[in-house]
Amino acid sequence: MNVLIGGAWPYANGSLHIGHIAALLPGDVLARYFRAKGDTVLFVSGSDCHGTPVTIRAKQENKTPEEISDFYHNEFSHCLLRLGFSYDLYDKTSSEEHKNFVKDFHKKLYNGGFVYEKTTPQAYCTNCHRFLPDRFVKGVCPHCGKNARGDQCESCGSVLDPENLLKAECSICGSSPESRPSTHLFLALTKLKDQLENYIESHSFWRKNAYELSKRYIREGLQDRSLTRDLDWGIDVPKDGFEGKKIYIWAENVLGYLSACYTLCQRHGLDFIEFWNSSKHYYVHGKDNVPFHTIILPALLLSRTDTFFKLPDEIISSEHLTLSGKKISTSDNWAVWIKDILDRYNPDSIRYFLISNGPQKKDTDFTWREFINSHNGELLGAYGNFVNRSLVFIQKFFEGKVPETHNRPDILNSLPELYDQVGALIEQGNFKEALDTVFKFIRNANKYFDEEQPWITVNSDLEKSKKTLYTCVQIIANLSLLLNPFLPFSSEKVRNILKIEKAAWNFIEIPNGFQLEPLEVLFERIDKKVIAEEEARLLQNQAIS
Fold first, then answer.
1. Domain residue limits at 116
2. Burial of 365 (0-12, 13-18, 19+ CB in 10 A)
3. For residue range 150-173, what is the model confidence (pLDDT) as tens digits?
4. Strands 130-131, 115-125: parallel, antiparallel or unpaired by DSSP?
5. Which of 106, 101, 104 lies closest to 89 in space, CA to CA?
């Protein structure tokens, strides 16, 4: 089977925090799982370099948007690699491959009967002497009355245009913008209403937030959206008469999934259209990005009447992650930055917490106490403890060789079924339940070790002790495969000890007499005094900002 997994493209205007990773991490779990099954996987994402937030950051630092976006793109790439993200391509929207693909896509889009020209009033700041991109306009949402930007209200989720805002002002200088006419290309979303509505209704199995939010956008009425903007940073509009204008970010960043897939297909000698249309698609992102994946991307694909493009299959949309009971705020420095937490903690500890306690179906909270406790309790106390005491015992009493005996069939026969259970949960997007299922098995394995008491039977009933340790080795070997999508670093350590070459998704058995490689400690205990230190650091960072 072909599988395409698209992770959301974060704005390259500031460092990544734990909220970003909580939304993106399921993509890597999916990619590692499907590869282990033997499927052909393309796992793609990249940095969104053309957004207004990048331009704003560049102005603040007196740098060019390219300098800012390249800096954060490189930082993202480094952090994601350290976290174990196994992208086949992590691109950026400023790459030549992406820009060329988007311009070609738009040329053909303009001829599909869903794009038209229209002169409309645009927000113009007479003080800054420029048309204002959506995010350069701030004001009050006309739907909920909360503060909002010109493109979207984060409070109620409404997709907006700057002219919809109440009490609008320029976010650069604070003056009230005026309206000036400007001619742009528009995508006729209103013509696509029936197709989009039928598409969404046929996907009622999506996560509740994706399905309900998408239905709400349809119910409230789709509005035609401008494909172009008066900007100086972005992708040129490939149409005569539109020189100096750029493709609107919403109409090019979601095409990154296609451009990255196209680039990889070119590299591997695959037919792009055939791969795209034959693949199972997963799109992984946060709640705020739902309409761009369930309305905008499908609309762009449907509007290309010259070629059939398959629409998204699965929408893996996370809820929000809060920090110590409060909304994560980059402006207030109320965040745990990934580049910092990676310097102090095991990447598998970060992955474990953000999957087992992540905002899969509801908002969840990150606290340092829970993070440290999950590491010490589950990773160290359950998993690490079971692996360590089993293998150390074999080293001490059996010269580091797997005892020559038979297994406990009642235990090992349950492992193939565990692969099926965990795999089904992963494919359904139930990552927390999948990980919990494996750790329930780990806790039972610890119970088995305790009940069999090999430290006693090694002297009183050697054959029973051998059988216990042989069975434990087989459990450990299979745990290294079952946990690889979630905890790739510790899983690789175990596979190195047992000389398991490939992280496949099927039951394996380590032979009698197998000589273990030198042991590696999977996890170190974290002193609980760190909790107070981290909480103090968080408050200090906020005070400084």
1. 112-247
2. middle
3. 777 878 877 777 777 888 888 778
4. antiparallel
5. 101
